[in-house]
Design brief:
2 domains; binds heme C; single chain
Length: about 290
């Protein structure tokens, strides 16, 4: 009999490799299913966004910080101390608004660095300003890493919770989620009838879907004052596709023609709108 014995060295290596692999697997939350903690912004941020505020005040402060800090950097590189100082003063004023607007975020603000910036600005000291700005920018980066994406999702994605769509009788107003479930049921009924060679039923459900899409279209106007976004998803082209589908469904069974039209519908209507609107609604719900 032939017996294999691993030399001491390679069994040690094997143990090391396995240990490293194991720790990689358990440390990776995506593999182990461990939860990652997300930091939510403080509630006081809400007062700087719609609907509590008329304008998106916080976002505009951020744009201002972006522009003014770029101006400071630009003039400091050009060696134009006077212009640099003019912008640095505006920048510092805006940066100091952060803890006044959201007191819970005071610890995110680098007060020492902004004081250094103000002192260097008063002396028109270019390299002092550059150094201070570099430090302040670390605070921008740190807060953004923790809170930016989440704040955008919570405060700036479209809010569908109060949007209503006309129900089947043309009178009742129902919420989006309930409406979507009924639209989905009709689509599935259409698919089943088409697969099982019931052309009359398939056409009935296709007409039902077409009617519902036209009620859905009316809901877009509550947010979109311009026609284009609605047209892209629920425009004449979509309703032509529906008419053609209702026509070709006269032929029983899973024909190539009806299959292509249904695929087009799924992709250009449901898929397109969901990638803009449904995903953000889902993320927002998770965060609240
Ligand atoms: C505004 C554009 C829009 C269009 C067009 C659209 N949807 Fe939706 N859909 C949404 C939104 C927004 C939600 C999330 C609603 C919620 O969870 O409150 C959603 C949710 C859903 C859901 C999940 C409902 C649940 O149980 O939570 C289904 C299923 C669905 N849609 C099916 C469809 C199908 C099928 C089509 C195409 C025939 C379609 N949708 C077209 C916006 C759209
Ligand atoms: C205390 C937290 C905090 C600090 C500090 C902070 N920001 Fe922000 N910033 C945010 C949040 C939250 C958003 C997301 C706002 C939104 O999407 O409505 C944001 C967004 C921005 C945006 C918009 C970017 C985009 O994706 O459109 C710019 C520009 C910006 N910040 C610049 C800065 C600069 C420059 C600094 C530092 C001088 C800074 N911010 C410091 C929290 C912070
Ligand atoms: C609750 C308000 C709201 C409703 C209702 C709504 N949208 Fe939107 N939509 C927005 C906002 C806000 C944006 C900008 C992107 C974002 O923040 O999600 C947007 C972006 C879009 C875009 C991408 C931008 C563009 O101009 O092409 C399309 C397409 C779109 N919506 C289609 C629709 C359609 C179709 C409907 C109705 C079935 C609809 N939306 C209903 C608020 C809404």
């Amino acid at each position: 009999m032939h017996k294999i014995t691993l030399p001491k060295f390679s069994s040690l290596l094997l143990v090391i490799v396995l240990t490293v692999l194991f720790s990689l697997i358990t440390a990776n939350p995506a593999i182990s299913g461990e939860k990652r903690e997300l930091s939510l912004p403080p509630d006081s941020l809400a007062q700087w966004y719609k609907p509590q505020n008329k304008r998106q005040v916080w976002l505009h402060l951020m744009f201002r910080l972006g522009e003014t800090s770029q101006a400071v950097a630009l003039y400091s590189e050009k060696g134009d101390a006077a212009s640099m100082a003019r912008w640095a003063t505006i920048f510092a004023e805006n940066y100091r608004r952060i803890p006044k607007m959201v007191p819970e975020w005071a610890q995110q603000v680098d007060f020492a660095a902004v004081e250094l910036l103000e002192k260097a600005t008063a002396k028109k000291d270019i390299s002092g300003v550059q150094k201070a700005l570099k430090k302040i920018r670390q605070s921008c980066k740190s807060c953004h890493g923790e809170f930016k994406a989440i704040s955008t999702a919570i405060y700036r994605s479209a809010d569908f919770s109060k949007v209503k769509v006309k129900g089947e009788n043309g009178i009742d107003l129902i919420n989006y989620r309930t409406f979507m479930k009924s639209l989905h049921r009709d689509i599935n009924n259409l698919k089943i009838a088409r697969a099982d060679l019931h052309p009359d039923e398939a056409r009935h459900f296709a007409k039902q879907v077409s009617k519902k899409l036209s009620s859905l279209k009316d809901s877009c106007i509550s947010c979109h004052k311009d026609k284009e976004p609605t047209q892209r998803i629920l425009g004449d082209k979509t309703f032509n596709t529906m008419d053609r589908l209702i026509e070709v469904l006269k032929e029983p069974g899973k024909t190539k023609k009806s299959g292509r039209l249904m695929g087009e519908l799924g992709y250009t209507v449901c898929g397109r709108c969901h990638s803009i609107h449904r995903n953000t609604v889902a993320i927002k719900r998770l965060l609240q």
